[in-house]
Amino acid sequence: MKTPSRMSESTETLCCTGTCHGCASCEEPSHHYICDFGSYFCYDNPAALQTQVQRDMKVNTAQFMALYAWYSWPNVVLCFFGGFLIDRVFGIRLGTIIFSIFVCVGQVIFALGALLNTFWLMNMGRFIFGIGGESLAVAQNTYAVSWFKGKELNLVFGLQLSMARIGSTVNMNIMGWIYSKVRDLLGYTGPSTLGLTLMIGGVTCLFSLTCALILAYLDKRAEKLLCKEQGKTGEVIKLTDVKDFSLSLWLIFVICVCYYAAVFPFIGLGKVFFIEKFKFSSQEASAINSIVYIISAPMSPVFGLLVDKLGKNIIWVLCAVITTLASHIMLAFTFWNPWIAMCLLGVAYSLLACALWPMVAFVVPEHQLGTAYGFMQSIQNLGLAIIAIAAGMILDTRGYLFLEVFFSACVCLSLIAVVMLYFVNHLTGGDLNWSAKKREKLQKVAATEAEEQERLRHQNEDDLAKLRPKADDFSLRNKYLSKLGAQLPDNYSSYLSTMVHRSLLK
After folding, report:
1. Using the 8-state DSSP alphabet, how is residue 86 labeled?
2. Would you say residue 306 has pLDDT above 80?
3. What are the Cα distances from residue 401, in Å, to 391, 397, 398, 408, 427?
4. What pTM was computed for the model?
C-alpha cells in the first residue's frame, strides 16, 4: 500500500541526510496501517460462516447474533478507558502489544469453543476478543497522531479505515472457501471443521501481533533518533461533562446508534438473506455481502477529502441516511438486482462515517472531546449489542421481511434525528452546516482576534515592566543583609530607593 510521501519535518530531514540508520521513521507507517488487519478480519468471521456456525453448533439465529453482542458488551465500558490505559498505564507501545494479545487469545478461545462443541466458550472468546479489538483501534489512532502532522492526518485515517475494510472484505470472501478445504481434508462437516477453520483465520491475528511488536521496536528506535516522546491519545474522560452536552450532540448520538444498528447487524445476517431470497450461491452471497466494505475501502479517503473541501456536514449525513433507507426498502419490498441496493448502501455508509464523526468536534469544547467520543462509542456498542440480539429473535420468529422492516424503522429514526439536528443547528446559530469556506474565514477572523489580544497583553506587560523601578546597588545590598538577619535602621529600608523613585515620578 502506498503511504503518505511526507511525515514530520524532523523525520524528513533525517531521511534526507541519511542519519536515520535504516530510517525507522519511514518503516513504521506500513506496519501501523496493518496493525489491526487481523482484528477486522476476524470480527466478521461469524458473518462469513453463518450457515456453518448455525448448522455445526446447532444454534438458532438469536444465539448466533449473540456472538456479535458479546463482542460489544465490554466496549460499552472500555471505550471510556482505552485512551486512559494507553496514556497513563501501559504507554502506546506496550498497550498496542497487550491489546493485540487479547485479540489473539480471544480468537483462539473462539476457535477452541467450536473444536470442543462448546458454544458458551465461543461467546467467552468473542468477549475477550472485544476487549482487545476496540482498544487496539484507539492505539492505532494514537500512533497516527504521533507520527503524522497537519493535512496528512486526514489521509492517514482514511487509509487506516481502508485497510480495515480490506481485512473485512478478505474475510467475507475467503473463510467459506477455507471451510470447504478443511471439510475436504477431514472428510466431514461439524464442530471440528468449524474450529480448524476459525483457527486458520486466527493466523491473521498473529500477523497483527507481529506488526505490533515490530512497530514498538521501530517507535522505540525512532524515539532515540528523533528525540520524540511516546504518542498519547490526548483524551480527558470526565463523566461529569455529560450533563453539559448540548441537544445537538445528543441528536448526533441518536443518529449514530440508529444508523449503525441498520448496517452492521444486517451484514452479519446478510449472507443467508441473499441465499434464501435471491437464490444466490454461497460464493455469490459472500461477494455481495462484502460489497459495502469493498466500496468503503477506496471511497472513505475520497469522501473525507470532499467533506473537508465543501463542508455542509448535516446535508451529507442527510443524503447518506436517505440513501440507506432507499437501499433497505429496495431489499425488503422488491426483487431488483440486489447489487444496486448494496452498492448504494456501501456509498452511503462511507459518506456518513466521513461526515458524522467530525461533527462532534464542532459542538463540544476541546477539553470534552475525549468524553464525547468515548460516550458516542459506548452507546454505539450498547445499541449494536441489543439490536444484534433483537435482529436474531425477529429473524427466528418473523422472517427476513419483518427484519428488513425493522432495519428500515431504525434508519427512519436516524432520519428524524438528522432533520431535528438541522433545525436545532439553524435556530441556535450552530456551525454544523457551514460551508468549508465560511468556516475557514471565521476561523481566520478568530485567530486574528486571538493574536491581537495576545499582542495587547504582551504590550501591557512591557509597559508595566518599564514603569517598574530597577533595583540599584543600595536596595540589593540591604535586601541581602535582611536575608542574613541583620537589623537595619528604618531609614535604611530596602525599599527606600523604590519610594524615592516613586516620589520623583509623582
Report:
1. I
2. yes
3. 12, 11, 8, 11, 39
4. 0.76
